[in-house]
Amino acid sequence: MLKIMSATKPISRLSVVTESGNDKEQRMYRDIYDAIMDHRLPARTKLTEQSLSQIYDMARHGVRKVLGQLAHDGLVDLEPNRGAFIASPGEKEAQDMFELRQSLEQLALEKVLQHAAPEAIRQLRHMVERERQAYEQGDRPLWIRLSADFHIELARLSGNDLLVELLRRLVSRTTLLISSQEVPATRPCSFDEHLRVVEALEKKDKKTVLSEMAQHLHQCACRTPKNVGKGFDLKAALKPRKIQK
């Protein structure tokens, strides 16, 4: 499977496209993902095939393919006879998702403790450092993507492919949910908390590993989405934001 990527940004473990995905499809996916995480596309925004086809100079079947992948990853809801909308999980769904994440990620960590090589744990530390750098550089979409990738990578290191697929959608949808709450001086997912998980993994301290992850997910779950208004320019929303140097 070919992963979403660009020339300037690392591959994301969060999202995948089929091998037949072309550059325009990958760009459209990445632009919509980044616009969601950067608050340029509010929850419940309607994504029309006609507008996206014009913006990306793509045939509608290509647009439908990308929207289908976004729906598969939990970022878009496809509603019969209505179209595609940026996902907006309700309170009950949010509670259910975080409850399930707690169970699945605890299982993943137990398997990582049993099987992961030291080099794999060092790579996790490197991922956390990249999170920190993206945050300090003001690249919010990249930082959020890397933050989500950390959880997917933990699942991958468990060696359970089904666990990876289940968590990919859960992480994607909960990341969308908590990133919709933009509060100054706060973070949707803390790289400091990720680092504490990695440090406990390095020490093979099972009790601390599980405790740190449980506390981390609890803090993430404490965030609630805010209601957002309507009315925006879709083409402008999909234009990448300049990153502070």
Output the keywords:
single chain, 245 residues, Arc Repressor Mutant, subunit A, Four Helix Bundle (Hemerythrin (Met), subunit A), two-stranded antiparallel sheet, elongated
Structure description:
By secondary structure, the chain is mainly alpha-helical. The chain contains 10 helices and 5 strands; from the N terminus they run ββαβααββααααααα. It has helices at residues 23-37, 49-56, 60-72, 91-115, 118-136, 140-157, 161-179, 191-202, 206-221, 234-237, and strands at 2-3, 16-17, 46-47, 76-79, 83-86. A hairpin with a 3-residue loop joins strand 4 (76-79) and strand 5. Helix 1 packs across helix 3, helix 2 packs across helix 3 (60-72) and helix 4 (91-115) packs across helix 7 (161-179). The two termini are 33 Å apart. 38% of the residues are buried.
